Amino acid sequence: MTLKFFKALTSHSRHKWFIRFFLFFIILIFSVLVITDPILQKSSYHLLADTRPWLFIPNFADVISNLPFALIGLAGLFHCLRTNKEISLSWRVFLSV
User: Fold this and answer.
1) Quick one: which H or E segment has residue 17?
2) What whole-number distance in Å separates Cα of residue 49 and Cα of residue 64?
């Protein structure tokens, strides 16, 4: 399709085209998920490197190693919420994932 084709479309027809494309894409992805088999993993994949508990937290070293990522994420969230009030809801949703 050429650029002239897209320019000729009205905003309503562009919206309808986008919805159809989006629905087709969702149906395609869902079909692939239904048709294909699950990806098999070795059971050893889920074994963590450090299995020692500490302070009643199992696998303490593996759990605590994620703390810097959580702290940096929270710092980023607070920074974004303070600097731009107009899009603070968008930042909250984005950073909560």
Assistant:
1) helix 11-35
2) 13
